[in-house]
Amino acid sequence: MPIKIPNNLPAANVLEGENIFVMNAARAYSQDIRPLRILILNLMPIKDVTETQLLRLLGNTPLQAEVDFIYTESYVPTHTSRAYLSEFYGTFAEVRHKKYDGFIITGAPVEQYAFEEVAYWDEVAEIMQWSKKHAYSTFHICWGAQAGLYYHYGIPKHWTEKKIFGVYEHHLCVQHESLLRGFDDVFYVPHSRHTETRRTDVDAVSELDVLAEGDAGVYIIANLRRRQFFITGHAEYDPMTLKAEYDRDLAAGMNPDIPRNYYPDDDPSRPPVVRWRSVAHLLFANWLNYYVYQGTPYELDSLDNADE
Question: Which positions in this protein are listed as binding substrate (predicted)?
Answer without folding.
Answer: 163, 192, 248
